[in-house]
Amino acid sequence: MPENKIEIKNLYVSFGSNQVINNLDLIVRKGETKVVIGRSGVGKSVLLKCIVGILKPDQGSIKIDGVEVTDLKEKDYNKLRMKMGMVFQGGALFDSMTVEENVTFVLNEFFNFDPRVVYDRMKESLAMVGLQGLGRLSPAKLSGGMKKRVGIARALCMEPELILYDEPTDEVDPVTGDSLTNLINKLRDKLNVTSVVVTHDMSAAYKVGDNIAMLYRGKVIADGTPEEIRNTHHPVVQQFVNGKARGPIMDDENLLLDYGV
Ligand SMILES: Nc1ncnc2c1ncn2[C@@H]1O[C@H](COP(=O)(O)OP(=O)(O)O)[C@@H](O)[C@H]1O
Ligand SMILES: [Mg+2]
What we know:
Elements: E1 4-15, E2 18-29, E3 33-37, H1 44-52, E4 59-64, E5 67-68, H2 74-81, E6 84-87, H3 99-110, H4 115-128, H5 144-156, E7 162-166, H6 174-191, E8 194-199, H7 202-208, E9 211-216, E10 219-224, H8 226-230, H9 235-241, H10 252-255
Helix pairs in contact: 3-4, 3-5, 4-5, 6-7
């Protein structure tokens, strides 16, 4: 059995003239939580979409459990997706459905499971995220943190070996963010899953990451333990993790500094 859950080599993704992923390499080992950090728009969600196969890269290799997935047929990819849980940015919940229906949506819509299995998985997933008893509510009745938990329960319903989290702590207050990171860690320990957590929230990154990789200009420019990333001498990584406006990462926004804004 390969020891790497995910192996990405020489990956390229572009949209028109926008070369978003530009010769990216990344390895995620079995059982680890790999955090991918980087600024908004750098390509973090695009990278996750390539892993779940929603998006096809222009070039390069993605191996999951040693299997090349970039040229898999949809039917075969679906088999692989049965072992993955994706927690979408913003939750992607339907307000017209109950929490229970949201949690079982993917299983019911795309896979042909016995309804009793789906029901049991739904109950168990809601319990794991601490939302037992709330399944009949509409997501609109829930707080931001609870909505995030519903999104996580939906991923857990797949009984995944691999969980992909897209910005699990954005748009929630720091206290809620902290309890969500606790949940991510608890799930890793309880389920022995491999996780990829995409975020620009450094406190979440340090808390959940066994390793942290930084994405910049289409590539992974650093990959190390939270300690290594915290103490990095790489000027771009340093600027990002310390949240400084001034540094080698300059754009229209921080150029305003020069005008005293
Ligand atoms: N479907 C798409 N069509 C065109 N451009 C896209 C598409 N998806 C993402 N992009 C572009 O790719 C870049 C990276 O986006 P994304 O991965 O969403 O960034 P983030 O790191 O904030 O998650 C952005 O410039 C975005 O505009
Ligand atoms: Mg994103």
